[in-house]
From TrEMBL:
This is DUF502 domain-containing protein. The lineage of its organism: Bacteria, Pseudomonadati, Pseudomonadota, Alphaproteobacteria, Hyphomicrobiales. The keyword Transit peptide does not apply. It comes from Peteryoungia desertarenae. It comes from the Bacteria. It holds the Pfam family DUF502.
Length: 242
């Protein structure tokens, strides 16, 4: 009986050690693989366009991973720097005017530029808030990422009742690369204190990785104000008497 118990305890310890090692090694291996894959993808796109005389691999006996990615970052930064001065803005405006004359290209360019300007704008609040909406039916809640307020024709059509509408992105689990764009009333949206990064973790893990709840100061003050006067004053009086 003792031998069987010892065997079970040894097997349980080995299983626990394996699971602990898996928790440590799996995220590290996946992170390294994704980073390496991204570097190789960037190199495969950039290196063919590097002139031979400027490619350091032609002077070395081995390949340097990340050369294409580094050169791409330098070129993009230089283009952004040149695009801020008068000459650069003139060149960009001329290039955009040429693209706007092309029937199919102008639609793709304008849409892509608008998306990048909205997402990468420093003061933009797009996808910086997480909320809950009742979906697919009342009583069932789904997590969404708040995009922006409804604008243009959609706002004119949906705001007829006087209720402000908000555009939200409903992403599926566990791969949030596609989803649904939905317009909901602001009063039907429950904002959460968690960050978008924490929301993505919760979404990808199917609810297994729950972020720690840290109430905002505004929410704590609102909860304090909602308390009855007797609940806040009487304990203080009792403490003073003691």
């Amino acid at each position: 009986m003792t031998e069987n118990t010892d065997r079970i305890s040894i097997a349980a310890r080995l299983r626990n050690n394996f699971l602990t090692g898996l928790i440590i090694c799996a995220p590290l291996a996946i992170t390294i693989w994704l980073t390496w894959s991204f570097i190789r993808w960037a190199d495969s796109w950039v290196k063919p366009y590097i002139p031979t005389r400027y490619n350091p691999e032609n002077y070395l006996q081995f390949a340097i991973p990340g050369t294409g990615l580094l050169i791409a970052l330098i070129v993009i930064t230089m283009v952004g720097f040149l695009g801020k001065n008068l000459i650069g803005r003139s060149i960009v405006s001329y290039g955009e005017s040429v693209l706007h004359r092309m029937p199919l290209v102008r639609t793709v360019y304008k849409s892509t530029k608008q998306i990048f300007e909205t997402v990468l704008k420093e003061q933009s609040s797009s996808f910086k808030k997480v909320g809950l909406i009742e979906f697919p039916h009342p009583g069932t809640w789904a997590m969404v990422f708040v995009s922006t307020d409804a604008k243009g024709e959609i706002a004119a059509k949906l705001n007829e009742a006087g209720e402000e509408m908000v555009a939200v992105f409903l992403a599926p689990t566990p791969v949030p690369t596609a989803g649904f764009l939905m317009f909901v009333a602001r009063s039907k949206l429950k904002l959460l204190d968690m960050s978008p990064e924490e929301g993505v973790k919760l979404l990808i893990s199917a609810g297994l990785v729950t972020p720690e709840y840290k109430p905002s100061p505004e929410g704590a003050m609102a909860a304090f104000k909602d308390l009855p006067l007797s609940d806040t004053v009487e304990p203080q009086r009792a403490a003073v008497k003691r």
